[in-house]
Amino acid sequence: MTDRTLSARVLDGRAPAGTRPWWRWFKRAASLVFFAAVVALLGQYAQYIDWDDVLESLGSTPPMALFVAALLAAASHLLYSCFDLIGKRYTGHNLPTLTVMGVTFVSYAFNLCIGSLVGGVGFRYRLYTRLGLKGSVVTRIVSMSMLTNWLGYKLMAGIVFLLHPLALPPSWHLGNHALQWLGALLICTSLAYIGACVKWGGHSWTIRGHEVYLPPWRMAVLQMTISCVNWSLMAGVIFVLLGQRVPYTDVLTVLLIGAIAGVVAHVPAGLGVFEFVFVALLSRVVSEGTLIGALLGYRAIYYLAPLAFASVLYVAMEAHARKHTTHAPRDS
């Protein structure tokens, strides 16, 4: 490998190809472990799904509602697929835009069903490194994507919790104004983040060996905007499947509460936790059967259908990466 080639690969974030046999064997073993973990987690996820109830729920939903819900779900997944493009801008790597969107879509679909550690993080590391990016570059991409998601969550949750709080069940012991106080705090932290980006945006600091980066304020606003729209689209899917029986703002509020409850509970895809939050907060408005039916439809449209497509896409991307690696010329 010439000095010029090595310099170019470092600049665009690509790692030099390893030549040691033990490293190739280690990567193969790591791949087998990764695939085994994915299969095991998917099997665990499938056991939680009552497939008969899912099919019954879909069959009882009006076709037009299913169509609109599917469009909203597709728009949400397409928008989330753009999250890593912010990381592309941040790191300056040269992978094609559609490739980046494909990796993001696959990781998001698996993240929804088997958790962030393997889905959101593991798949990104697996695919991006197979595509030639260094681990340090992937770490910054993952960090930026996660930041984008939760920046929008904080702002959206802050707004709806403050301006449209729901009455929480007495058993939750949070008081009547707990959501409003939480909403005000979330809005303040969001504004503080934007203020920090206005003053120090575009700079990075190294703290205990970890890089802390503040994006320019325009990028931070873009992050918040696309994430807020994504959360809004997710709520729209459930709103449509509920037949618009519940006000949209109520659905959005409960979705945001259920999302953080699922993260705290560490249950794959928030199974059971997500449904419990909806039943606890909205069963006074619509029946439990209607809620469960809509949520089963939501899982089918927003989780299972994208997962099936992402699985096929992932196999294709692995095959393409393997073919590219096999036929790539060796550097001297």
Give a description of the structure.
This protein has 332 residues and is mostly helical. It contains 13 helices and two strands; from the N terminus they run αααααααααββαααα. A two-stranded antiparallel ribbon has the order 1-2. A hairpin with a 2-residue loop joins strand 1 (203-207) and strand 2. Helix 7 (116-130) runs antiparallel to helix 8, helix 8 crosses helix 10 and helix 12 (273-282) packs antiparallel against helix 13 (288-327). The longest helix is centred in the C-terminal third of the chain and has 40 residues, at 288-327. The model is unreliable at 1-18 and 326-332 (pLDDT under 50).
What attributes does this structure have?
mainly alpha, two-stranded antiparallel ribbon, 332 residues, globular
The number of helical segments is 13
**Percent helix range:** over 70%
Look at the helices and sheets and give the structural class.
mainly alpha
The overall strand count is 2
Percent of sequence in beta strands: under 5%
Average pLDDT reading? 79
Q: How far is the N terminus from the C terminus? A: 4 Å
The order of strands across the largest sheet is: 1-2
Question: What is the radius of gyration?
Answer: 22 Å
The general outline is: globular
- Identify low-pLDDT runs: 1-18, 326-332
Give a short account of the largest sheet. Answer: 2 strands, antiparallel
Reading the helices and strands in chain order gives: HHHHHHHHHEEHHHH
